[in-house]
Amino acid sequence: MNTTSKLMSIAPQLMAKSTEIAMRHYANIDTGECKVMTKDDASPLTEADLEVDRYLYDELTKAFPNIPVVTEERAQSHSLDVGTGMFFLVDPIDGTKEFINKRNEFTVNIALLENGKPIAGVVCAPALNECYLGEVGKGAALLNLQTNKSTPITVRKTDNDALLVVASRSHLTPENQKFIDENKVAETKCAGSSLKFCLLAKGEADVYPRFGPTMEWDTAAGHAVLLAAGGVVNNLDGTPLSYAKTEFRNPNFIAASANAEYKL
């Protein structure tokens, strides 16, 4: 079994346990039993982030001992020289603000990359019982965590005279609003975390413009799922968004279904 297939085979087990951990802490947000901290960059951090991080890091290093694992919450992993080989990018809880505010749109993310490109990804939404899996070149699927039913997903055929845009719930910048105003947008949906990529992947939106800071672990898993479903994620110059960049920082980008047309 190759590496991507192995990741896909163990992903449901990894996400079932991650869901259990995340939801245990989620239930304790209101009571104050789930401790909320602030990182050096002023972003929030919870005990859920840390426990899911420990679990996924340990399981991935055990299952794939020769593949480096970079996670948001392990600063020491940010100095790894991943070069052009395979490596994992993990965001244990993406959408921590959603998590703290008891909105269901937070996700657990694992991406596998090679030569700076996503080749497989898993995005789990614990509070929604949804898990998105994508293996680039082989397709994407939505797994119901309650029923274990898996359904293939693909991007939709875009009506370029009536674009459906998805935007960040927490980071709607003036540049994002300008994009919406200057294109033929029929509807704008707001969503949190990497679920925005998944809305594109399952055909519920056409374009996700992101003008504002993101890190590679924020985007890699959703990017992989979208690629597997037939979509694209490009820099503003039209070249594909790549990974293993300096400090794992992303530039502005546009995620879209394959035939979406828009102007910048």
Outline the structure in words:
The protein is built from 6 helices and 16 strands. By secondary structure, the protein is α+β, with helices and mostly antiparallel strands. The strands form 5 sheets. Strands 3-4-5-6-7-8-9 form a 7-stranded mixed sheet, sandwiched between helices. Strands 12-16-14 form a 3-stranded antiparallel sheet, covered by helices on one side. Strands 1-2 form a two-stranded antiparallel ribbon. A hairpin with a 5-residue loop joins strand 1 and strand 2 (44-46). Helix 1 packs antiparallel against helix 2 and helix 5 runs parallel beside helix 6. It starts with a helix and ends in a 7-residue tail after the last strand.
At a glance:
The chain is α+β, with helices and mostly antiparallel strands and 264 residues long.
Shape: globular
Terminal residue distance: 43 Å
CATH architecture of the largest domain: 2-Layer Sandwich
CATH topology of the largest domain: Fructose-1,6-Bisphosphatase, Chain A, domain 1
State the assembly state of the protein chains.
single chain
Give the H and E element order.
HEEHEEHEEEEEEHEHEEHEEE
Q: What's the CATH C level of the largest domain? A: Alpha Beta
- Count of folded domains: 2
Write out the strand line-up for the largest beta sheet, numbering strands in chain order.
3-4-5-6-7-8-9
CATH superfamily heading of the largest domain? Fructose-1,6-Bisphosphatase, subunit A, domain 1
Radius of gyration: 17 Å
Strand content: 25-35%
Task: Bin the helical content.
Answer: 25-40%
Number of helices: 6
Structural class: alpha+beta
Kindly report the average pLDDT value: 94
By DSSP, the count of extended strands is: 16
Q: Ranges with pLDDT <50 over ≥5 residues?
A: none
Largest sheet: 7 strands, mixed
